[in-house]
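Here comes just one.
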Amino acid sequence: MEVLAFGVQADEKPLIEAAFEGHHEVRCVGVFLDADTAAMAAGYEAISTSVNARLDAGVLQTLAVGGTAMIAQRSTGFNNIDLDVAERLGLTVARVSFYSPYSVAEFAWTLAMAVNRRIVRASNRTRDFDFRLDGLMGRDLRGRTVGVVGTGKIGEAFTRIAHGFGMRLLGWDVAPNPACAELGMTYVPKEDLFAESDVISLHVPLLPATRHLIGADALRLMKDDAILVNSSRGGLIDSEALVGELRKGRFTGVGLDVYEAEAGLFFLDKSLEAVDDDTLARLVTFPNVVVTSHQAYYTTDAVAQIVETTVANIDDWAAGRRSENVLVPAAPAP
């Protein structure tokens, strides 16, 4: 069987081709799956998509009409897929429920340290041979408080690094993680976490209940010199409310690897175009904000796990097997 993989980055392609070898043929394309590109999938029983694909009702209908029966998403998140429509159309949808949590946790700390120690500003200065230290003063993390919002596998990995820094650990989750508690984490109401933490990092999925979890009220509770990091899903933060607080001169730094309107922007070269997203344009102008393009997961270790699981998901579907990765079960391949 030949599989069409959408949204493949140049660095990913050799890993994907190696993982599929001996299982299925794979055709990799750089374009993302959306209403304009869905017709490319005609004749492919199985396709693979990235997190920034748009699988709404119209796209899913086009896929079904073209003969696609299986969608293997190369990510843990699946808020970009209309699962109800997929089920109604008889499409199987699977995701990657687990990959290296260290990739995201380490990158979240990279963002926190970058804004704390003004790394981007310092690097830009030295490129111009400006070696002054004015405006570059950061803070020690040891002894300060970190608030971890979501203490699953990634949140736990983030917490272990914080423990290594010698920080006071606060956590918030629907269910406490015993491993985090053993490290000394105290679980508190999220309002207390926001108010007491010097560093706040988000590691929860995007669900209706967590959309804009960090809104105007939550932001006002945070310390004026707090560091806020989001390497999970952009929709967790109300971006306009965040801009409003930044304009008041608040926060030591904000590190964002995700953005709630990133679809159609992230993973693409927009450097020669006028970007009409005023909120994002404003965010990137603040000297205490670092925005990266959803790259926290992007290590050879994590991507290798993602593509290996994707191949296994397609193998399982073809053989009529079902795993924990299946979001919408449907008929197996004939």
The chain has two domains: 2-99+299-328, 101-291. Residues 217 and 241 are 9 Å apart (CA to CA).
